[in-house]
Amino acid sequence: MAEIKLMKGNEALAEAAIRAGLQGYFGYPITPQSEVIEYLAVQEPKHDYVLIQAESELAAVNMLYGSSGAGARVMTTTSSPGFTLMQEGISYLACTELPCVLVNVVRGGPGLGTIQASQGDYFQAVKGGGHGDYHIIVLGPNSVQEMVDHIFLAFELADKYCNPVMLLADGAIGQMMEKVTLPEPIPYKPNKPWATTGKTPDRKRNILTSLFIESEEMEKRNLRLQEKFKKITQNEIQYEEYQTDDAEIIVVAFGLCSRISKRAVDIGRESGIKMGLFRPITLWPFPLKQLEEIASRKNVKFFISIEMNAGQMVEDVKLAVCGKKPVHFFGRLGGIVPTPDETFNAIKSKI
Amino acid sequence: MKKGYELIYKRPKTLLSKRMHYCPGCFHSTVHKMLMEVVEEMDIQEKTIGVCPVGCSVFAYDYLDVDMQEAAHGRAAAVATGIKRMLPDRIVFSYQGDGDLAAIGTAETIHACNRGENFTFIFINNGIYGMTGGQMAPTTLEGQKTTTSPYGRKPDTAGMPIKMAEIVSLFERVAYVERVSCNTPANARKTKRAIRKAFEFQMQGLGTTFIEVASNCPSGWKCTPEESLNWLKEHVFPYFPLGVFKEPAKEKV
User: Hey, are the CB atoms on A198 and B86 less than 8 Å from each other?
Assistant: First the structure.
């Protein structure tokens, strides 16, 4: 039965993973997401998932590779510096086409950075942080409830496309407590004929590899991946619009910033400025066409991207708007979360 | 079969009939055959899953007729851990070279051994980076010339060759460690016996099993296959002695 609880974002996502049929979790503690592995460690005796505290994020992501290849529903979670270490494995997972869920509860960087909330890993998440041409599906939750909902969606998309899917959260969403509805656990029965479970006489051996030494074969694999990415772009884009119908100013924001920006839009509306919010929910694939359509509207004067970084998603907004309207940016850095008032003032200053 | 003749030697059914890419004289093909003979004799083809490394044996899955995963360089122990934990009743092995297991993947090797992950390492130690063209390995002998130690390995700057069998035998949860070679038919048979023992211990759930093969590399060592066997005897075995470093207590077996 569905349950209503008051929970921390990190714990809610861990509970959601269990309810979504988690079979293997591999991770390394790092602030601000260590509650995930701690929660799973406490719950472990009641369930039959495998949990390993790995020696590093590098090992964790490769355990994820092995276990996903063995046909299991698996997840890892980390925060920024750890996510950088995982890039090697993510590139291999993407090329080998292994389904898995990755969560980055982002903290401020670069370097060791800070442990407060940030969106500084947007580029790394959506442009492909590892080597080679690949994409992972990236979801941007903005509440504890969405940490739960997006975990279910992420497992589903991972299996549907045989591709890694990640949640790009942030330290604030990971740490904050909110009311959350936990759905009923779903029975998970993997159907993965490609998995390495042991060669039975009725089939050829299964080989999972990202090595194609002949250029023609490597190109073939690349084209297959690109075809899949096209399909994902056609089918899986999600976004949310708020007060955009008659808006003259379009505020674009994802994750935590979308909630701050929503309040800034309300402040604007209260003082008679026609503002609206466009919130990409899938950060890859990015809702380029939807933003392009809005940019073509006569009443729209300009766009402004609000982010907790030095201006990363704003590049995708510019790609979508394609010079049709001015695109501005406002952001705070280093783990600082902008307030609705300063966000509103920043937007107003562009009028 | 011609009348009066008896078939006494053949390729195991678990070894695919494909021409191998290995250099003449290299032990990889011998170890592949031993490994697949064990799989056939133990009748475990349906239960065996292997992990390939990055190195000369990166294409091992082209020859071994079992399910296999290709790991990133050095990560075979982590990948094998993931497989074995999800499928504990299967027989899992990683097949790795010295660069893979003892340089870039040392952390993964050490921690898998420390956790006592219940799979078998097959470690091919030939003291050189064969695939990339003969560079220095962590197991290259003192004074041995390679393309990146053209004046011979200098311990002052490169350290001494790393003794993995000795190191991993220190871990409590490692069940069985043996260093073998394939320089003579007798030693090749010992290699096969060691692999079989390792798989049997794995099936009993005794912990990590680790077979190090003191191997050769005629191409990388720039010598004939025969000379490489002499080099093994004269230089490699004195530093990397063959033998059993750890075995499960009798009552456990």
Answer: no
**Which residue ranges make up each domain of chain A?**
3-235, 241-348
Q: The domain A241-348 is classified under which CATH number: 3.40.50.720, 3.40.140.10, 3.40.50.920, 3.10.50.40? A: 3.40.50.920
Q: How far is Cα B235 from Cα B219, in angstroms, rounded to an integer?
A: 17
Test mutation, B39, B62, B83, B100, chain A, max A CBs within 10 A: B83
The whole-number average pLDDT for the span A2-15 is 97
pLDDT at A1 over 90: no
The answer to whether A216 faces chain B, any CB pair under 8 Å, is no
Cβ atoms within 10 Å of A195's Cβ, excluding its own: 23
Summarize pLDDT for A128-167 with one digit per residue, the tens: 899 999 999 999 999 999 999 999 999 999 999 999 999 9
Q: Tell whether A130 lies on the interface with B, counting CB pairs under 8 A.
A: no
ipTM of predicted complex: 0.96
State yes or no: pLDDT of B250 exceeds 80: no
d(CA A89, CA A93): 6
Dihedral sign for Cα atoms in the order B94, B100, B104, B110: positive
Decide if A92 touches B, using CB distance below 8 A. Answer: yes
Domain A3-235 architecture? 3-Layer(aba) Sandwich (3.40)
Structural domains in chain B, sorted by start: 27-246 (3.40.50.970)
Contact B78 A62 (CB under 8 A): yes
Predicted local confidence at residue A189, as pLDDT:
87
